[in-house]
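Re: the request from the purification team.
They wanted to know what the chain is likely to look like in 3D before they choose a buffer screen. I agreed to run a prediction and write the result into the notebook, where they can find it.
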Amino acid sequence: MAGATLTTLSDILKEYYLGPVAEQLNNEVLLLSRLNTKSEDLMGKRAYVPLHTNRSGGIGARAESAALPASGNQTYDKAVYDLKYLYGRVQVTGPSMAKTKNEAGAFLQALKGELDGIRADLQKDLARQVYGDGTAQIVQCGTTSSDTTVVLNTAAGKEAIRKGQLYVGMLVDIGTVADVDTISGATPRTITAVDYTNATVDISGAAVTTSSSHYITRAGAGVDGAATATGSRSSEIDGLKRVVAASATAFGELDPATKTFWDNKRIGSVGAIALDDLQQGLNLIRLEGGKPSVMVTSLGVQREIYNLLDQQVRYVDPESYNYVAGFQTIEYAGLPVIADIDAPYGSLFMLDESTIKVFSDQDWHFLDADGQTLRQVAGYDAFEAVMTRYMNLGVTKRNNHAVLTGITVDGSADAGI
């Protein structure tokens, strides 16, 4: 019986793992499971979205025999989104291949743990990015005085640790906006321990000194320099906190400081949320012609809204709203109020999902341009497979979304429960 080859193993990897991995990733990240994926607007590795920005001035009522209104015209602009490149990489050793070379199925069992693990890791990191602001900053640091135990901003640090965004074995950079690895150095640090109670992480290597001007990012994901309307903020996708920002923020190469139509609605410093806050946010969207379809928030904020509704609460059947089973929801003003564990604490997003798009040239796939899904690692007795997806989030109409921020839970900061 002929032994398994890299070609036959590659074919089996594609057949048995690619479809399930991609399907589960898309379904398990809440926002991605609800949004439309668009490829028709792509030109190369950028997405161009034409925007209708103003009506014509050439209309008006006139008296008999009066001059007609001066002619006018519609005005247009465009939003531009760069695709970001996401990867997941698994590796097995040559000896593990040798022990199973005559049975492809046995060898695939050796890969199963790695493939299942990378799926879970991609899911968690993609969920973080989907809710992020596109800077790749996971958490702000606190004051650390020459130590390998890095103090984090207390609230943000506890949120990141509780959500699993910082974990043992993770490679990270530590630095400023201007220089993302100025503290950690050119060699990424490995997280060796996390402490939720004290909001700290232990790192490998030499002791560091940090302040509130420093941030932790996933190794290699950050880009040096402050963000601009046209400049790249990081190698990660632009998430919901940039699409529906808490302050006027440039996005899609358009700056709301000069393009006033290109800004979402917001209510800040909410404190204890009231039904009036929800209705005000919905009204702001409707004034712009938006049709909100969902509210997304944390578990704690959803609980606060549940308590406001009390006996009037209506539970929504997940099947009727076509979203992932397992995400619990209630209803207000005919809209589902969905709680997601990855949603930012203390915030509630009111979204018109028809205008938020996932720009992507294709779904998750193996790098196999040379025909091989599994290839030898140069210089090592090991073999690897790499999954990737080129994608980014964008919006075709920004002013029909709203965000409420600074929401407290049980009279104090939202802890996500």
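For the purification team: The two ends are 57 Å apart (CA to CA).
Please add any questions underneath this entry.
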